[in-house]
Amino acid sequence: MKKLLLPLLLFSLKLSAQNAQQIHQRAILIDTHNDVLSTQLITKNDLGKRQSTGNFDLVRAKEGGLDAQIFSIWCGEKYGKGTAFAQANQEIDSLYALIKRNPDKIVLVRNSAELKKAVDQKKLAALIGVEGGHMIEDRMDYIDSLAKRGMRYLTLTWNNSTSWATSARDEVIKKDSLKHLGLTDYGKQIVHHLNELGVMVDVSHVGERTFYDVLATTNKPVIASHSCVYNINPNRRNLKDDQLKALAKNGGVVCVNFYSGFVDSTYAAKVTTFYLKYKTEIDSLGKVYNDADLGFIKTSSLHQAEADKLRPPLSMLIQHIDYIVKLIGIDHVGIGSDFDGSESFPLGMDSVADYPKVTAELLKLNYTEKDIDKILGGNVMRVLKANTGK
Question: Pfam families, from UniProt (predicted)?
């Protein structure tokens, strides 16, 4: 009898893995945040082909069952009036070029109906999210221009505040010196205009005051495109319980960020030690890539084995998803990986090819196929349709 136990166990595990893969492939998977376009402008990598670096390309996206990607259009705070909008358009141009080179693999979509059509055609549905209100340069007509080019959400702030909305970083670090807190009257006009255009309002990165001002202003459900749970990891970028409850009341969805620093409360201290050890190298690479964070990412890739020791287990990422479900319900959580925008992700989550591992872990926690469908993409589809009307 004992001799039969191991083969039976292995057979059971194989069936479980097959079941997870089938459920994963049947679901529509939407990732609401990937930063590959801003890095691709530097690396010049052909994302239509398998890459040995980074987290995204069309080959690995297919392997991971990714059906729709909202590509982040991002630039840091050093870009401002006269440069930020142009940078945003340059990144959108690079997405258009990728689509033009790979028309049989990827297509630009603007609503849930077009997204479903792309899935039926077995193409990756590409959507655009602009990460940082500074890229509109305080101009309402720039919002119109970006929306015409395909912008489906606007993250009202990045780490830097705008003249009309304060960020999570600034509300914590610069609170006493800020000229205003939350949304100004112009900021509220911007939210209303986004509602009118069918562009989702993204509250990731915004300060608490801005967050609640948005929910008091918007007439459409919002999205937190890449955020985690504050009660698990008290990082200023994560959402507190009251914020999560308010977002659920709004009908919105919080898409869980895979970044180790938002997932794991012990990560920051470990990173500090790593940073001090390689400070010269990080600073040098930061100059080459015009951003200290990118310098850190490159340094981590050069010292991969050591960097891997800083990473949390995959179970900790799943804990954030499970926490949100238990607090505010299955209808308000999604996936917003932040791939290619961070230097570290949980062990096993190395690229877009690894999404099936999330499904497998959720099945271990007895989530149903219907639940998983909602988490992987159904909830985001609902919010997208509520905003666009299609």
Answer: Peptidase_M19
